[in-house]
Sequence to fold (638 residues):
Amino acid sequence: MSAMLDIPEEDRLILEAIEKWLERDVRPHVMRLEHADEYPHEMVAQMREMGLFGATIPREYGGLGLSAGTYARIVELIAETWMSLTGIFNSHLIMAACVARMGTEAQKRHYLPRFASGELRGGLALTEPDAGTDLQAIRTRARREGDAYVVNGTKTWISNGIHGQCFALLVKTDPEAQPPHKGMSMFIAEKGEGFTVSRKLEKLGYKGIDSAELVFRDYRIPAANLLGGEEGRGLQAALGGLELGRINVAARGCGIASAALKDSVRYAQIRRTFGKPICQHQAIQLKLGEMATRLQAARLLTYDAARIYDAGRRCDMEAGMAKYFASEAAVENSLEAMRIHGGYGYSKEYPIERYFRDAPLMCIGEGTNEIQRIIIARQLIERNPA
Amino acid sequence: MKVLVPVKRVIDYNVKVRVRPDGTGVDLANVKMSMNPFDEIAVEEAIRLKEKGAAEEIVAVSIGVRQAQETLRTALAMGADRAILIVATDDVHQDIEPLAVAKLLAKVVEAEKPGLVIMGKQAIDNDMNATGQMLAAILGWPQATFAGEVTIEGDHALVTREVDGGLQTIRVRLPAVVTADLRLNEPRYASLPNIMKAKKKPLEEKTPADFGVDVSPRLTVLKTREPEGRKAGIKVKSVDELVEKLKEAGVI
Fold:
């Protein structure tokens, strides 16, 4: 699309390679895998071969060291074809980003190259049955015993929970600490005894990918796996990953919004009513005009947040705006696409109903859109004292 | 053995082309361009020959506008070792004609001395299907066009050609020119790490003047127009009526 023409040559080549892969090896299989809710093993193997699991991992640790800007475009492109796929490497890379940012040198050397090659895959284990956006309320507990910690608790909605092997696990090392975040720590937890997957969760959309519940019963983890080698920095690690996480989700929202628009633009030229293609009816034109403008605004917010992230500046407000706006754009565009497609939009023979099921996750995941607006407002106040 | 792979930058096969209002050709401004798919197959074949130990070095060459260096980077990312770009025009709408391309390639062959030149059988933009044949003629080399299978046997190549009646296998002495058909292989896509490494591979820039070749056009395009739209069909009520209509149309 036109959005591709003004980006650096190297990035364009990367996006073109991914586009080719999507056309040849993904698009023909999406419908089948989606409706069977089947894990895309082959695509994961291809993503490994392409090096996607190392996309944002620093080059010195075997990754590609791509900027958030390029990465956002990759996510958008893949989400445009099948949003579920982006979850397989998004949360993996956020786990890697936690290690890259907060890990000790030994932890980085040990884990990052294996994350980058995809030999070890995983994600973030933050959410619990009773704590999501409010992370300080988590109850999973890690008690020190000699040179290890013993973990007990439950994590839920963990992407890659079944097929991943390694997770950035947020726990309380001191439940009494005040403020509570001082008692929170993060571990790099590989599957082992006491670490079980209790079930695969059934969802409205986001099919194919394994969202699971993880249960820890006297799971022993070496103290060497405490991220950064120091207790009390867990929340900082988790929140630091969320800026990139929100840019990710914003990009996914752009992808869905873009797919909904592209399909609508095509369909509106083919479908005829009252003697002409429906794109010649004002009712449809108004929708297309809205959808395209919304998508463009969502993209610009997303690229802008990524640009600030790449400049190394704080971007929770910008990432929050992008995540909020782009996810709502995905919901609205998918609903409009359904109206344009009429009965076909509601049919499982077309992908529109998938966009419509996938889009709301963008509003809920990675911090609800409600909290995003609160973050934006708080930042506004902080940056503009009266 | 060194393998030379000429690649052309063409309008992407997924793009719906539009004829320029003045009828001089297809609009190429601000549209997605890619490597000619048949050339991609040729690059893939060269890489496979290298992987099998039948080739040591792969040199990709492109002739056209400066932006063709992206096409060369793609070839490098797939696995070519180095690239030569001959900037022959700065007008994206000027097509360098097969004869000029063949003359330039002949000069590159003179300098590089490859044991094999493998290229797409034709470019999907103008479907000339001529450059490979012209190059072989200029060089006085054997040619094996429309290759569906290529095997190197010592100083010969065994090439199975896709011809109208089926498959024809010929044996040509190397050095030779081989042109790739659709079923020769399925090209790999470049992995992201290789795309990043490709940036560091050598890409040499030349001009036609460096080789003393005149690339000015000899052909004149009189008119370009879009194919006629499909006419609406009719509905028949029964098989009998269908058969009758088909007979009327003289197709059965």
Remarks:
- The radius of gyration of chain A is 21 Å.
- Chain A has three domains: 9-117, 122-232, 236-383.
- The interface with chain B takes residues 2, 4-5, 9-10, 12-14, 16-17, 20-21, 23-24, 49-52, 54-55, 64, 66 of chain A (CB under 8 Å).
